[in-house]
Amino acid sequence: MRLIYHGHAAFSLISGDFHLIIDPFLSGNPLAKIKAEDCHPSHILLTHGHSDHLGDALELAAANQALIIAPTELANWCEDKGAQSHAMYMGSMVFPFGRCTMVQAFHGSYIKDNGQTLYGGLACGYVLEIGGKVVYHAGDTGIFGDMANLSRRARIDCALLPIGGNYTMDPIDALAAAAMIGAALTIPMHYNTFPIIRQDPHAFVAELGKQGLAGRVLGPEESVEL
Ligand code: NI
Ligand code: MN
């Protein structure tokens, strides 16, 4: 299974015929090096409705007949906009690509639609079992104690954790989160896209190393084989 970073909170997970893209903020993402038209997902997973996560979801869904998986209110809004969607909430569902478990995230969610602000439901994270690997995408969240239980169903091979601060965990909280999760590999996300979330991901990974945890900084379009 190949994991590709697109900058901010956008990642692709590719295994066999399946291409999952999470939070596809590509157009308007100052860190993204790939154009939405060059991206061909089979599934689009959204953690919440904020524009830096919803991103190009509707356009990608239309261009690729991709299924959008999202918290119910957001999934239903996508459906109203013409996308195929699968609405779910904190729970587990088996899709053709593997198991998708939606988990909590401490964050908000709204959708900006033609000058209106619509309620987006709850924000979430995902634990995804695909290609024999388990990946946790935390979404936008502060730290919470139940991160220690995320590996209850299956050991997490790779944790994608926000470190930008202000809206989410900063590197100090993300370090404690990584220790609770105990993933084989931790990758920082949600930093340096905007001045307010400026952080040093290499310092974060060095601190992980001091705690005996493996970390890796991925630049935009860099990938790792899990
Ligand atoms: Ni957000
Ligand atoms: Mn965000």
Structure description:
The protein is an alpha/beta fold and 226 residues long. The chain has a single domain, classed as Metallo-beta-lactamase, Chain A. It has 5 helices and 15 strands. The strands form 3 sheets. A 7-stranded mixed sheet has the order 6-5-4-3-2-1-15, with helices on one face. The mean pLDDT is 98. It binds nickel (II) ion and manganese (II) ion (MN). Manganese (II) ion (MN) is lined by residues 50, 52-53, 140, 167, 190. Manganese (II) ion (MN) binds at residues 50, 52-53, 140, 167, 190.
Low-confidence stretches: none
Structural class designation: alpha/beta
Provide the helix percentage.
10-25%
Could you tell me the number of beta strands?
Answer: 15
Features:
single chain; 226 residues; alpha/beta; Metallo-beta-lactamase, Chain A; seven-stranded mixed sheet; 5 helices; 15 strands; 19% helix; binds nickel (II) ion; binds manganese (II) ion
Short summary of the structure?
This protein has 5 helices and 15 strands. The protein is α/β, with parallel strands linked by helices and 226 residues long. The chain has a single domain, classed as Metallo-beta-lactamase, Chain A (4-Layer Sandwich), CATH 3.60.15.10.
Write the layout of secondary structure elements.
Elements: E1 2-5, E2 11-15, E3 18-22, E4 43-45, H1 51-54, H2 57-64, E5 67-71, H3 72-80, E6 84-88, E7 91-95, E8 98-104, E9 110-113, E10 116-119, E11 124-130, E12 133-137, E13 158-162, H4 171-181, E14 185-189, H5 201-210, E15 223-225
Parallel strand pairs: 3-4, 4-5, 5-6, 12-13, 13-14
Antiparallel strand pairs: 1-2, 1-15, 2-3, 7-8, 8-11, 9-10, 11-12
Helix pairs in contact: 4-5
This protein binds nickel (II) ion and manganese (II) ion (MN).
